[in-house]
Amino acid sequence: MDKLIVHGGVTLRGSINISGSKNASLPILAASLLTPEPCIIRHVPDVSDTNYMIQILSALGADVERSSGTVRITCEDISDQAPYELVRRMRASICVMGPLLARKGRAVVSLPGGCVIGDRPVDLHLRGLEALGAHVEFAGGNITLTAKDGLHGAEINLCGTHGPTGNVMMAATLAEGLTIIESAAAEPEVLDLANFLNAMGANIQGAGTRRIVIEGVPELHGIEHTVIPDRIEAGTFMVAAAIAGEGVTLRRVCRDHLKAITDAIEQTGHHVQFNATGDVCTVQRNGHPRGIDLVTAPYPGFPTDMQAQMTALLATTPDVSIIKDTIFPQRFMHCAELKRMGADIKVDHGTAVVRGIPQLSAAPVMASDLRASAALVLAALTAKGSTEIIRLYHIDRGYEHIDEKLLMLGANVERLKER
Ligand code: EPU
Fold first, then answer.
1. Domains in the chain, number
2. What is the DSSP string of 186-208?
3. Residue 147: is its pLDDT beyond 70?
4. Mean pLDDT, the chain, integer
5. Which residue in 75, 95, 115, 159 is the catalytic one?
6. Mean pLDDT of 269-291
7. What is the pLDDT of residue 115?
8. Nearest to 378 by CA among 272, 236, 261
């Protein structure tokens, strides 16, 4: 287990490239189960979550080759049972359920366990697949879905949820007839998945909006695809620049996906500028920032995956800021650790009240989940002294080479092996 030492007080400057999106890559990798032909997927970030997904696909019988961000997957002869040992490590492995069911008529996947960011049920994944004709059974910690007579189109309301929208959309590509997803998730990662599926030969319309219509097709074929930039990694580095930067430039971003994050950072008084094509952005820190009120919401609202990082920024921004997480109201584990660094934060019923102080001070802190760990790294960048962040594996789940990227921007960070 690694830990990160962040020596605070160094100004960040320069430019880095943003990696491909983790949350788009995961379902896209799973979607390659829908065809026996090879799929080539580019800009897959080298993070442990994508590594787990690749291990799950290999365990299912896929032939996978990976080299510098490009993954080639051929799912010619696959099993219908995802191994518990791998599935238990990552909640997102639930997204193999839809493609396995559609391809094999049966899927056995372990029921995901508890999650530190809150209770994360899978009822909508199951309700959606049941509506397409699957029979659901629970036994021995596993969910078994069977569709002996194949899947058939249906009208389903998925309450704006991201994972269920992807799972049902993948299953519906090979179902007979028309599927309509009402209250679909409109996240860019869902649109990227739909673009991948359509290129494979699926017929999906409306992805990226609240209503998705899928006309089932008999089969899908292999393709090449480049994953969209990771808007949460981009947002995290935008906040790093606002906290500790002096002109930090991020390349390979997508302006359209960053609107809510850009608005929030600009409201605090910092400056964000994009080039004409919207794929390069520069953040300029303002010496007189101000507090804001923030509420997380499904896309295009402010993402829950950026809530912890903004809390780190607001911890040293004058005024009182109020942050409410409506998606995961229990996702405030970072606040207890930020308080160990001197932050003045009170959390009550999914809302954090942050009173900005001039400077945090270093302390040994513990990463509890992916975005909470990112918040601790950001806070440590301007804290007085050297902050030691343990359980770094959380951050390695979703940030590609974060310590190397911070070093490129001039930060003083060291990764050490924990004993
Ligand atoms: N929900 C249900 N029933 C379900 C599924 C979800 O009640 O069957 C609830 C959840 O408990 C939660 C809300 O609906 O309160 C949102 O869940 P959703 O399905 O949208 O989230 P997810 O697919 O499990 C993805 C991202 C998360 C991100 C959320 C929200 C991936 C792999 N994960 O999770 O990313 O926070 O959408 O945008 O795409 C992260 O990257 O740090 C992360 C946690």
1. 2
2. --HHHHHHHHHHHHTT-EEE-BT
3. yes
4. 96
5. 115
6. 96
7. 67
8. 236
